[in-house]
Amino acid sequence: MPIPGTPSRAELVEHLVRTRIAGDVATPRENNLSHYRKLANGDRNFWLGLELGDRWTDEQDVLAVMAERVGVNDDPEYRYGQDTIDPELTVAALERMAGRLRKAADGGQRVLFATGHPGGLLDVHRATAAALRTAGCEIVVVPDGLQTDEGYVMQFADVAMLEHGATLWHTHSGEPMKAILTALERLGGPLPDLVVADHGWAGYAGQHGVDSVGYADSNDPALFIAESEGTVQVTVPLDDHVVSPRYYDPMTAYLLAEAGLS
Hints:
alpha/beta; two-stranded antiparallel sheet; 9 helices; 262 residues; globular; 42% helix
């Protein structure tokens, strides 16, 4: 069971490993390497709303970034079996994200929340949005009637998501965020001061010049590359769909405590 209340740093590290949010994660090494290769080969489904140009055409360069920022095995000859996320890197990234959330709260900024992984991360974003609203931030309302080729852009519990066939949809695409930001510009309103998201929602926002922080798995290298280039401010490495979404509760509690929002 998740630990109650707000964990210490050491308790959170132990919890992340025990629940496989970090440590020996479920994502196999061969899946990680396959995604790194596809990104390097220019498959835009793996660019997560970013424009990487020809800067990342060597999959070994991608692996080096992922070893540094996520903690996957850095040996290019290790091709099959278990891979890892370093829980210390997860917590360090949460602490960096907390600093940006604190800035948003202190400035009463406009913040947009979105997720391409509602089955895992919806409540993480919902709780963070609620804390920032209480602290005086404006949570951006998504314009009605937006859609992409995959489905409709909806907002539930202050979090934008994609809905398809009456189901909340898992997507890596940046098109839903593009639809939101384009609509806000068309309506003449200001863009968000900060986007807190994951997948292509975070990537496209950063590419568009909006401050963006988010979460990514070990098989989704684009956001970590974007952080290394300064396009995305913070990317937190984690397994983004573990057995129970309740397992993320201690992580969220730690994040909000570090930001002074709990």
